[in-house]
Design a protein that fits this description.
The protein has about 260 residues and is an alpha+beta fold. The protein has one domain: Endonuclease/exonuclease/phosphatase (Deoxyribonuclease I, Chain A), CATH 3.60.10. It is about 25% helix and about 25% strand. It contains seven helices and 14 strands. The chain has helices at about 10-25, 45-50, 85-90, 115-135, 170-180, 190, 210, and strands at about 1-5, 30-35, 55-60, 65-70, 75-80, 95-100, 100-105, 140-145, 185, 200, 215, 220-225, 230-235, 255. The longest helix has 18 residues, at about 115-135. The relative contact order is 0.16. It binds one DNA strand of 18 nucleotides through helix 7.
DNA sequence: ATGGCCAATTTTATTGGA
């Protein structure tokens, strides 16, 4: 089973490219977690995904944020509200249960430099998400697929010196995500590719993608016995290295499980 | 690849993204 995470930066602007990408891969993705769909539920292009064989669970909002999970199998259960103020005030989280596994599409706050409102909001959001996850049953199979807006280590940025103490590389941001990882999660890409510098996001400006000046901030984490079932992990550069249609600034990350 | 960031809205500027 292949699970993918893709921050599309507007599903309306990206629909054509996402469809092209899925078809190019012969629709080998079983579960596609989307972030930054930037639209309300009613405006999500359900039908376009249906014609490719996917059913979509959506938690959207106007203009900003918004997440979805499109899967070949209809989920047994969908959660859109998490009964925590920090996790519900913006649409950054949706969870579906497929084959007894809880799969989350995650869009962590971007944040800001130290001292700014959005810096503190990111910290509060991570605390709330960690606390929420700690309340889940220990043995539960969980996959977290999304844009976490943190580069875990210096290996995950193109220039650690230049990018030291910037958004996504600050120690406290890394600790916030590491806290979650340390709850028993495995970084699927790093598990398979121990030393490879590969990125999932590149700035639109300056032709960053062509110079490979990027960061790895999109992840698929898994816990429970899923960690022993990771078969392959991949970052697919194809959708990012298009000129037309205009790509997202992110590219999809994929993990394959022996399930 | 041969450039000079992109998307949505509050729209001809501003905000957010990272």
């Amino acid at each position: 089973m292949k699970i993918a995470s893709y921050n599309v930066n507007s599903i309306k602007s990206r629909l054509g490219l996402v469809v092209q990408w899925l078809q190019r891969r012969s629709c080998d993705i079983d579960v596609l977690c989307l972030q930054e769909i930037k639209t309300v539920d009613e405006a999500f292009p359900y039908k376009d995904f249906e014609s490719l064989g996917y059913v979509c669970a959506v938690s959207g909002q106007k203009a900003y944020n918004g997440v979805a999970v499109c899967s070949k199998v209809r989920p047994e259960h969908v959660v859109r509200e998490f009964d925590v103020a920090e996790l519900d005030e913006q649409k950054r989280l949706i969870a579906v249960t497929i084959g007894g596994i809880d799969i989350y599409s995650v869009y962590a706050p971007h944040g800001d430099l130290r001292g700014m409102d959005k810096y503190y909001y990111k910290q509060r959001w991570y605390e709330a998400f960690k606390a929420y996850l700690s309340r889940q049953p220990e043995q539960r199979g969980i996959v977290l697929a999304g844009d976490f807006n943190v580069a875990l280590t210096d290996m995950d940025v193109y220039d650690p010196v230049l990018l030291k103490d910037t958004i996504g590389t600050m120690d406290e941001e890394r600790l916030a995500l590491m806290d979650i990882v340390n709850m028993g999660f495995t970084d699927t890409f790093r598990h398979i590719h121990k030393e490879e510098r590969q990125f999932s996001w590149w700035d639109y400006s300056g032709g960053a993608v062509w110079k490979d000046e990027g960061m790895r901030i999109d992840y698929i984490f898994c816990k429970g016995n899923l960690s022993e079932k990771i078969k392959e992990a991949e970052i697919d550069l194809w959708p990012r290295r298009r000129r037309t249609p205009t790509p997202s600034d992110h590219t999809p990350v994929i993990a394959e499980f022996v399930i």
